[in-house]
Design goal:
Protein name: Endoplasmin-like
Family: Belongs to the heat shock protein 90 family.
Keywords: ATP-binding, Chaperone, Nucleotide-binding
Strand content: 15-25%
Low-confidence stretches: 243-251
Strand order of the largest sheet: 1-6-5-4-7-3-2-8-10-9
GO molecular function: ATP binding; ATP hydrolysis activity; ATP-dependent protein folding chaperone; unfolded protein binding
Number of helices: 19
Number of strands: 20
Structural class: alpha+beta
Binding site for ATP: 34, 38, 83, 88, 96, 102-104, 124-129, 185, 388
Largest sheet: 10 strands, mixed
Bound molecules: adenosine-5'-diphosphate, magnesium ion
């Protein structure tokens, strides 16, 4: 048409498409999930508009109008996915389907640059709309925005450009009841030669069951079925019993008959119908006892757009001063490793009475250090016309917030208890630690930095967080990375009558464990925490003590052993004082510009001398770190 405009894809999209088109991607199936999830997003958005913007055009329909329809056309080799969502204007088609919209995609490209393997990455990130090109040579999108009077069509063959034009095509055919809405989006995929199996209705059914089971709008598939006359009589009988066109099949399949075609003579009828593929009762409204671990995994993946398994989850409801249901997940890989700083994940959603209100809700519900939690909260109490300010001020929200944080901490504690049990069993078997990392250790590997951030920032939860910390020490097996202890264990296995938890910080385990500062302690049988994470020293400083036992840097000037050893040390020093006085003076005279004090000490065993930090100063290691940060 004259009004057709050709656009070049943004450079990033072109690169992405190159990767997609040329990748020997083993799990192309995900394209369907991505397109269905976009359709569901568009439906969520129109529903939000219905709630918040009553006079918007074409948004005042009933719930029944919100749906997703899938059709396969084996003759044209086309697979179509249509929705009655909010649709896109011409400008939105260009902005949304011509540029990289989502951070996940940008992160994906970044990883590709580092040289990671595209096969695994596409799986990890999901590449959104562009995944259509995993299976299609040409993709056409007919869309009409709820704001717009005409539909537009976007077409691309993935060769660096696409076109957008007004179109005579409509999103829904005139015979379809959804046509009256004059709104929505239809994605048409001209399948690649090696992707023809996606024209098989059984294939589509199984993919929807697998990936899109928990989409909260009905997904219908157009099915044409040959039925013999005798089968038909039987079905009619059943239909009479069910009374109506809706037929609840044994596997929850709901059907809407569109038309029946009688074939000549041979007693066969072709029945055309829409078969509903998903059950939309939201998972969080169900009883946990009727749900399997797999159900939760699938829901987690659908909710977060991630492809990993959750490490742990909590499904609970609160009643009383505030009523809500919530579902929390711990992603098995830290989502913030793939996301730019300052960005808030999609993946924690707020629902009011089962209707999605806000999809990036982490920022409101969780302190910074807990923003990796994926999940949702569905409240019965919050007012439906929730403005931003109201959400922030609401007392109810504050209550919910507190309960969610508490529940998240409970999840961590459950993993921790499991870990302690596994450790006890390992020790019984004569091992230092479980041979396989426990779920807690997997969790700790991903999130220890955030837990430590929590110690610094979240005063209220500091004591609880302290229990979650794990350390290598002078007694853990350096060959066994799983061999770590908690502060509680440190206190439990203290041998000397010591008043302090001793620690030494440095760059590597080797550095720290071979330091002159620890040699005497080890000789006397003390356990020393070996801190090699740059955050550790600040963390201990913020904690101050653990259950009353203060932390003590072994490199500090005011360092003390347990009273008995301290006494022995004093005695040694006293007896040697006179003999060493000249040496002390000599050093002081020659080094007065670098040292402030020279002390005779019995805290070393084989090394002749060490440089220590003053009591209220930072340790040398910490000072080095701070200096490095300031540069
Ligand atoms: P994401 O869904 O993470 O935003 P996608 O690549 O999947 O990224 O989609 C890009 C954008 O295209 C979406 O954010 C949305 O604005 C738009 N879009 C895609 N599919 C539809 C649809 N069916 N209806 C309306 N908008 C859509
Ligand atoms: Mg998407």
């Amino acid at each position: 048409s004259d009004q057709e405009t050709t656009f070049q894809f943004e450079a990033e999209v072109s690169r992405l498409m190159d990767i997609i088109v040329h990748s020997l991607y083993s799990n192309r199936d995900v394209f369907l999930r991505e397109l269905i999830s976009n359709a569901a997003d568009a439906l969520d958005k129109i529903r939000m508009l219905q709630l918040t913007n009553a006079d918007a055009r074409k948004v005042d329909e009933t719930q029944e109008d919100l749906k997703i329809k899938i059709t396969v056309d084996p003759e044209r080799k086309v697979l179509e996915i249509a929705d009655t969502g909010l649709g896109m204007t011409k400008e939105e088609l260009v902005a949304n389907l011509g540029a990289v919209a989502k951070s996940g995609t940008a992160a994906f490209l970044e990883q590709m640059q580092i040289g990671a393997d595209s096969k695994n990455l596409i799986g990890q990130f999901g590449v959104g709309f562009y995944s259509a090109f995993l299976v299609a040579d040409t993709v056409s999108v007919v869309s009409q925005s709820y704001k717009d009077s005409t539909p537009h069509v976007w077409v691309s063959g993935a060769h660096g450009s696409y076109t957008v034009a007004p179109t005579d095509q409509t999103v829904f055919g005139s015979e379809e009841p959804e046509a009256k809405l004059e709104r929505g989006t239809r994605i048409m995929l001209s399948l690649k030669d090696d992707a023809m199996h996606y024209l098989d209705v059984e294939m589509i059914k199984s993919l929807v069951k697998k990936y899109s089971q928990f989409v909260s709008f009905p997904i219908y598939l157009y099915v044409s079925e040959k039925v013999t006359d005798s089968e038909k009589t039987q079905e009619l009988e059943q239909d009479k019993i069910a009374s109506g066109i809706l037929d609840e099949g044994d596997d929850d399949e709901e059907e809407i008959i569109v038309k029946e075609e009688q074939l000549a003579d041979d007693g066969i009828t072709i029945v055309h119908k829409w078969v509903k593929l998903n059950e939309q009762r939201p998972i969080w409204t169900r009883n946990p006892s009727e749900l399997s671990k797999e159900d939760y995994s699938e829901f987690y993946q659908a909710l977060s757009g991630r492809f990993d398994e959750p490490l742990h989850y909590a499904h609970f409801s609160a009643e009383g001063e505030v009523n809500f249901k919530a579902l929390l997940f711990i992603p098995s890989t830290n989502p913030y490793k793939q996301i730019k700083e300052g960005e808030v994940l999609e993946g924690f959603k707020l629902y009011l009475r089962r209707v999605l209100i806000k999809d990036t809700f982490q920022g409101t519900m969780f302190p910074t250090w807990l923003r990796f939690i994926v999940g949702l909260v569905d409240s019965d109490d919050l007012p439906i016309n929730v403005s931003r300010e109201m959400l922030q001020q609401s007392k109810l929200l504050e209550l919910i917030r507190r309960k969610l944080v508490r529940k998240a901490m409970d999840m961590f504690r459950e993993l921790m208890v499991e870990d302690q049990e596994a450790r006890a069993r390992a020790i019984e078997d004569g091992l230092d630690a479980p041979e396989e990392p426990t779920r807690y250790m997997l969790f700790y590997k991903q999130y220890s930095k955030l837990l430590k951030l929590g110690v610094l920032e979240d005063e209220g939860n500091r004591p609880r967080l302290a229990k979650l910390l794990r350390f290598r020490t002078s007694r853990t097996n350096p060959e066994q990375p799983e061999d770590v202890i908690s502060l509680a264990e440190y206190i439990d296995r203290v041998k000397n009558e010591q008043e302090y938890i001793y620690f030494h910080a440095g760059e590597t385990l080797e550095h720290v464990s071979s330091s002159p500062f620890v040699e005497k302690l080890l000789e006397l049988g003390y356990e020393v925490l070996y801190l090699t994470d740059p955050m550790d020293e600040s963390v201990l400083q913020y904690l101050g003590d653990f259950e009353g036992m203060k932390f003590m840097a072994v490199s500090k000037d005011n360092f003390k052993f347990a009273p008995a050893d301290q006494k022995e040390q004093k005695r040694l020093i006293k007896s040697a004082k006179a003999a060493y006085a000249p040496l002390k003076d000599f050093i002081m005279n020659h080094m007065s510009e670098i040292v402030s004090k020279v002390k005779l000490s019995a805290r070393l065993s084989t090394s002749p001398a060490v440089v220590t930090a003053v009591e209220y100063g930072y340790s040398p290691h910490f000072e080095m770190l701070t200096r490095a940060q300031m540069q």
